[in-house]
Amino acid sequence: MAAGQFLRDFRRAYQLKKTAEHRKRVLQRKQKIKETTDKVPFCDFSNDRSLGKETLYARLVRYYQKHGEGALKRYYSKVELQKLCRAVDVPVAAKDNKSILVRRLVGVLREDGSRFTCSYYLDRLKAVIPPEVPDGRIILRIQR
């Protein structure tokens, strides 16, 4: 009798543990999806025409405040982080890894009243497609 009760208790505890682990994984998955959807797409930076790109800067600050440094490191590439750092006038070296770039960027994002002072770094190297394509070829011109 005692062995049967022990087995029932063990199975119930194991099932509770298993459902708790599953619930934790589901919540982590939801958090990742939320971070991905909240991310400020980098293509929006080149399309924003406001002075100093203030609207996107504010969105980036809110994204950092909501999700932290880890999200910036996960969802932005090294090149994008370098451009963002240059846009806020932070010195960048080619050997800097993403962690260093994020730390420097976060130092500026925490300051009040700061914005993209050198926003032309965010507009550089965008492809321009001419309105007419001769001979069916696509020609891309790079602006600097």
Structural class label = mainly alpha
Q: Biggest sheet, strands in spatial order? A: 1-2
- Biggest beta sheet summary: 2 strands, antiparallel
Strand content: under 5%
Order of helices and strands: HHHHHHHEE
The number of helical runs is: 7
The span between the termini is 81 Å
Unreliable stretches covering 5 or more consecutive residues: 125-130
Helical residues, percent: 55-70%
Q: Count the strands? A: 2
Mean pLDDT equals 80
- General shape: elongated
Supply Rg: 24 Å
Could you give a quick summary of the protein structure above?
This protein is an all-alpha fold and 144 residues long. It has helices spanning 2-38, 42-47, 54-67, 69-75, 78-87, 98-109, 120-123, and strands at residues 127-128, 141-142.
Could you explain how this protein is built, in words?
By secondary structure, the chain is mostly helical. The protein has a domain at 51-144. 62% of the residues lie in helices and 3% in strands. It is built from 7 helices and 2 strands. It has a two-stranded antiparallel ribbon with strand order 1-2. α5 packs parallel to α6. The longest helix is centred in the N-terminal third of the chain and has 37 residues, at 2-38. The termini are far apart.
Layout of secondary structure:
Elements (H helix, E strand, L loop, with lengths): L1 H37 L3 H6 L6 H14 L1 H7 L2 H10 L10 H12 L10 H4 L3 E2 L12 E2 L2
Antiparallel strand pairs: 1-2
Keywords:
mainly alpha; single chain; 2 strands; 144 residues; 62% helix
